Amino acid sequence: MDRGAGWFKLMGTPKSAGTKLLSVSGDCARPGVYEVAFGLKVQDLLKMAGGLDAQAVQVGGPSGTCISRGQFERKLCFEDLPTGGSVIVIGPQRDLFEAIHNFMDFFIEESCGWCVPCRAGNILLKKKLEKITSGKGTAKDLQEIESWGKTIKAMSRCGLGQTSPNPILTTLQNFREMYEAKVRNDKDFISEFDLAAAVKAASSLTGQKLTEAHHE
Ligand code: SF4
Fold first, then answer.
1. For residue range 9-20, what is the model confidence (pLDDT) as tens digits?
2. Ligand 1 neighbours (beta carbon < 6 A)
């Protein structure tokens, strides 16, 4: 205020003037609140916070964007990676899928339930993600999780539902190989429902075993 708007605008980028307070958390040696000029590269922030070995950085909280190591040259500003201030560092020791599951749990919990795409859609997305991460997914499941996510974003009433699929959609975009390594390419469809496990107790009581014919 003392030095005026002109001085403040000397910092930052053309569309993101001045400085920004960033709350850096997660797998880094020096988590905390950093005031930096808009336009700082993610890599330079990681250097300051002691998190250069990160496998991923979640910019803008769960509803933001998850970027991979190859994108650490990107800039924190409205023209590139916008954030209200949250930057979460995800270290190489983490299972990234676990973080995505946690973010989806958060959105399911926070949905107010007013509209169906957000109330039911996020649960369906989470189930589909569980199917994929448990090794029962196919290429079709990847297509569906992507199109369902885009539909939920387009059809939800408020900002929560409009951003809730982002943990899945942005990792699908930036960590595609991680998803592809999980899906089976030798099958078009795998059932989520495990019939043998569901009737295990009854089978042991009756002494009857499930045959292939039952499965089909
Ligand atoms: S999108 Fe918003 S209004 Fe709709 S259920 Fe989710 S939180 Fe509620």
1. 999 999 999 999
2. 111-115, 118-119, 156-158, 160-161
| C-alpha 40 to ligand 1 mean position (Å) | 33
166 Cα to the center of ligand 1, angstroms: 15
CATH number, domain of 154, equals: 1.20.1440.230
Q: Count H helices and E strands in the chain, helices first.
A: 12, 9
85 and 101 part of one domain: no
What atom in ligand 1 is closest to the CA of residue 158? 2
Q: For ligand 1, what atom is nearest to the CA of residue 156?
A: 1
Ligand 1 atom closest to Cα of residue 113: 5
Task: Give 149-157's long-range contacts (Cβ < 8 A, gap of 24+).
Answer: 149/125, 151/117, 151/121, 152/117, 152/118, 152/121, 152/122, 152/125, 155/115, 155/117, 155/121, 156/115, 156/117, 156/118, 156/121, 157/114, 157/115, 157/118
Count of alpha carbons within 13 Å of 42, Cβ hemisphere only? 29
Please determine, for residue 211, whether its predicted confidence score (pLDDT) is greater than 70. no
Q: How many domains are there within the chain?
A: 2
pLDDT digits (tens, 9 = 90+) for 121-178: 999 999 999 999 999 999 999 999 999 999 999 999 999 999 999 999 999 999 999 9
